[in-house]
Amino acid sequence: MYNFAYHKPKNITEAVNILQNADDAKVLAGGQTLIATMKLRLASPTDIVDLSDIEELATISKTDKGIIIGAMKTHTQVSKSEIIQNNIPSLSYMASQIGDQMVRNQGTIGGSVANNDPAADYPAAIVGLGAKIFTNSREIRGDDFFTGMYETCLNSEEIIVSISFPIPIRSAYVKFKNPASRYAIVGVMVADYGSDVRVAVTGAGNSVFRLEKFEQALSNDFSKDSLSKLTVPTADLIEDMHAGAAYRAHLVKVMAQRAVSDCCSQI
Ligand SMILES: Cc1cc2nc3c(=O)[nH]c(=O)nc-3n(C[C@H](O)[C@H](O)[C@H](O)COP(=O)(O)OP(=O)(O)OC[C@H]3O[C@@H](n4cnc5c(N)ncnc54)[C@H](O)[C@@H]3O)c2cc1C
């Protein structure tokens, strides 16, 4: 590891101040990605701003708008929160399926979302559940947040403070995981909001995407069979050592149908 200045601010204003005045600062959440990236010299920030002492980032609450989760909540905390289990069980289940116990104890929702790994689970939950991201300076719709592989619309001096999830009538997340890392080869979130059905896919493309044809079919008839004649175009899907584009397209449909079946068993 090379030298850098380490900061541990007590509040968001102090943290943003450091980000604005440093040459090239990065915030540190669970460190599951950032530390490895620095060790490999893929990033060499001059300043590290550790968010772990900021209490405002570590809350989970229920309001009339839904469930609000602070950016520093770990995957374990999200998976074990009774508020989340009782209101959006698909979200607590999704968090329980991330990586291994050590990764879940350290990795945070804010870090995962800011990182936008194409195989990460949270992007499917953010887009599939129609979530909103609140930063120190603005509110961003989940649909507008993820802009490409490892890219988001965050600017370098912006901190994710919390994420709010409207509570669906029913929802389910199903993933086909890489057996070594547990990252998604394909993961699909299906959420039924009555007038609005959302289907979001992670792992298959450069970034999370919605499947509008699947959403329309489910809006007309919320059943697994309504998807049976639909296909997933392969043109924009990832080809890598884990799966080809055609296989991923097949998996997307199968995972979506399983998620719909899970939803149907909830009512
Ligand atoms: C072995 C292994 C297996 C994994 N498996 C999975 C998996 O199955 N599914 C999955 O989804 N993920 C998986 N992950 C990813 C992991 O769960 C973390 O979510 C991810 O590494 C980033 O979260 P973090 O809190 O550690 O962020 P950090 O590593 O601390 O930060 C990551 C990036 O986000 C930025 N950042 C962090 N917090 C904020 C914030 N509040 N505002 C703005 N920017 C911020 C940092 O500056 C940095 O650029 C795995 C990781 C490992 C190491």
> Given the structure, what is the number of helices?
11
Structural class: alpha+beta
Question: What gap, in angstroms, lies between the N and C termini?
Answer: 53 Å
Largest sheet descriptor: 5 strands, antiparallel
Unreliable sequence segments: none
Output the radius of gyration. Answer: 18 Å
Helical content class: 25-40%
% residues in beta strands = 15-25%
**Total E-strand runs:** 14
The ordered H/E elements are: EHEHEEEHHHHHHEEHEEEEEEEHH
Mean pLDDT: 97
What is the top-level CATH class of the largest domain? Alpha Beta
Strand numbers in spatial order across the main sheet: 4-5-10-6-7
Q: State the CATH architecture of the largest domain.
A: 2-Layer Sandwich
Q: Give the overall shape.
A: globular
How many domains comprise the coordinates? 3
CATH topology name of the largest domain, in short, is: Uridine Diphospho-n-acetylenolpyruvylglucosamine Reductase, domain 3
Bound molecules: flavin-adenine dinucleotide
